[in-house]
Amino acid sequence: MFNSPTTAHSFHIPVMGLGFTADTPMKVAKYGISSVVSIMDDHMLEDLRRIYSRKLQIPYLPITDKTDDSRANRIKAYLNLAHDAVNKQMEDLKSQSFEYSIAINEYFTLLPESHGLYVLYEKMKQEVGEAKEAIQSRLKAAISPGKIDVNIMTKVDKINFDKEGNELSREYSDALSALRGFAESDLESSVVFSAGMNPALYGYAEQFADFFPDLNGKIKKGIILKVSDYRSALIQGRFLAKKGLWVSEFRIESGLNCGGHAFATDGLLIGPILEEFKNNRAELRQILFDTCQKALTDKGSHLLSEDIMPKITYQGGIGSAAEDKFLMNYYQLDGTGWGSPFLLVPEATSVDKDTLDRLIQSRKSDYYLSHASPLGVPFNNLRSSSGEEQRISRIQKNRPGSPCYKKFLSFSTEFSSKPICTASREYQNLKLKDYAEGKTSQLEMDEVLEKDCLCEGLSASVILNQGEEPRRSLKAVTICPGPNLAYFKGVFSLKEMLDHIYGKVSIALDPERPQVFVKELQLYVQHLQHEISKSLPEKTQKFETYVEKFKTNLSQGIAYYQDLIANFPIDTEEVMGNMKVQLQELKDKIRGLELAKV
Fold first, then answer.
1. pLDDT one-digit tens code per residue, 192-215
2. Cβ pair 557, 521 in contact under 8 A
3. How many CA atoms lie within 13 A of 300 on its CB side?
4. Taking each helix axis from N to C terminus, what angle separates 321-330 and 494-501, rounded to the nearest 10 degrees?
5. CB 40 within 8 A of CB 530
């Protein structure tokens, strides 16, 4: 349930791709670590359910395409399997002896040293006899699993058709079906809505009682909004609150210093954004609380608990214990998200050996923001991935594009009334005909050929990691790490990564790694340079206004950071000294960005 006074860990593992965190809960939830599973690919989840059913020696009955509501039922079945598996792990853990078992001790040794349970655990080791047994009983009673949260990317909401080609009703669209699968599952956790507002999806949540308070004001299934700024949080939060739906957490993510799809702001930097949340937190809570209570009253429903508070967390590019600690303390956050570094932790994520080796051998230049996504949103990519190799090989063989089986990203109606995917072989062949006839520019054609099949590429790794072959032998892996991963090298144990997060030890990072605020700023300056360079020779007034606004926001962000460094010890003297120099250099670079010079 929500608003628990204590949690085991101050960080969570965000969703990564379709498959990289698909089975993460069954790896780390037993240690109290929360993580997020993408529930967009029901075919992959069904394959995983088959694999894990065999591993766990439980019956498996396939859910085929002929099954009614197959997509929602596959998602529900996999989430129930994960829920039951983690509950079984917790039962086993609590039955173990501190003297003879490793796992129960690991639960506590992985905690930050300041955590009350860690302190109590250390005290237990010094006690003997009945006093020791009493503390052990208290420790076992306090053990709780991490959350199995799920992610729905709101833009991935294709309308579906029956076998006769008739359009199915709205609740059978991809996003709404996924929500139904989660809502009808046994989980007590949250759905993370990412990529902006989807009114139909948000409204559909009203159909399920688990999203509303019970008699005691508790909510079984929460809603987490992934947002890029305060305004978005307020707009989306109020939209949901008017329906009696409470947002249990606002998960703020950097626009560019993140993995997966990148949703850049107009130069608004994460420091000022977090400051705005900090300053307006009480007001945000009150607006949403009052709105939600009124809606629940009008519905005749149970009301929220009077002490309920939305959590505020941040994720994107955090790389050191000092950064994590400053973010938590200064911005009064309830938690942070550590994503891409966990791709190097086999105990936590599912990255096949070939892809893991490619990550370790990669250079900084291999991490880039691409046009690979059929959604038309910039996508963090790895140049040396097997997915990129396959895409380029297909072009060289005059067979560009991918066979399109899953069709989750089929949204283009440029050539047909029925949407097709821009990464598909069908679409790219049609586009090449346009190019040959002079209807498509070279720049547009290059961007089209850069599209990749994310449906297959982002799900293959988890199946390969289980020693099996993905359906139709589509083994090429697309991976979407954030730029921060370029500074981590090697394979790490779960304990090594957690000790790094909590400052018990320090993983040796690339010495050129910039502080998290500076790295994001660098990415935004690069983004603006790119926007200016690709713009048409005849600059419109609208574009000029956009550039000036972007530059103003960046300059104000730099002034904010300069003031912050002058007044708060945000990191070591060496780090802050480097920040001062880098901020000034970036300030000068922004001043020199002029449209006329392009």
1. 999 999 999 999 999 999 999 999
2. yes
3. 0
4. 50
5. no
pTM of the model: 0.96
Is 507 in contact with 488 (CB distance < 8 Å)?
A: yes
* Chain mean position to CA 510: 24
Measured N-to-C along each axis, helices 70-94 and 42-56 cross at an angle, to the nearest 10 degrees, of: 40
Contact, 46 vs 74, CB < 8 A? yes
Domain coordinates in residue numbering, the chain: 352-478, 514-598
Both structure tokens of 378: 């910039």
* DSSP strand pairing (311-315 vs 222-227): unpaired
| CA dihedral of residues 219, 222, 228, 232 (deg, nearest 10) | -60
- The pLDDT, as a whole number, for residue 3 is 36
424 contacts 404 by C-beta, under 8 angstroms: yes
Task: Say if strands 335-337 and 11-13 run parallel, antiparallel, or are unpaired.
Answer: parallel
CA distance 197 to 234: 12
Q: Please state, in angstroms and rounded to a whole number, the distance separating the CA atoms of residues 476 and 458.
A: 9
Distance CA 272, CA 558 (A): 10
Query: Do 509 and 485 contact (CB within 8 A), yes or no?
Result: no
The number of beta carbons lying within 10 Å of the beta carbon of residue 550 is 23
Q: How many CA atoms lie less than 13 Å away from 253 in the CB half-sphere?
A: 28
CA 540/CA 525 separation, integer angstroms:
21
Which parts of the chain register pLDDT below 50? 1-5, 596-598
**Distances, alpha carbon 590 to alpha carbons 100, 339, 529, 558, in Å:** 61, 30, 9, 10
The first and second tokens of residue 276, run together, are 């705005």
Task: Return the closest-CA partner of residue 423 out of 457, 395, 392, 449.
Answer: 449
Name the one residue in this structure whose structure tokens are 């400053």. Answer: 326
Instruction: Please give the DSSP secondary-structure letter assigned to residue 166.
Output: P
Are the C-beta atoms of residues 327 and 333 closer than 8 Å to each other? yes
Measured from the Cβ of residue 113, the count of other Cβ atoms closer than 10 Å reads 12
- Whole-number Å distance between alpha carbons of 292 and 287: 8
CA angle 136, 141, 144 (to 5 degrees): 120
* Helix residue ranges, H only, 57-98: 70-94
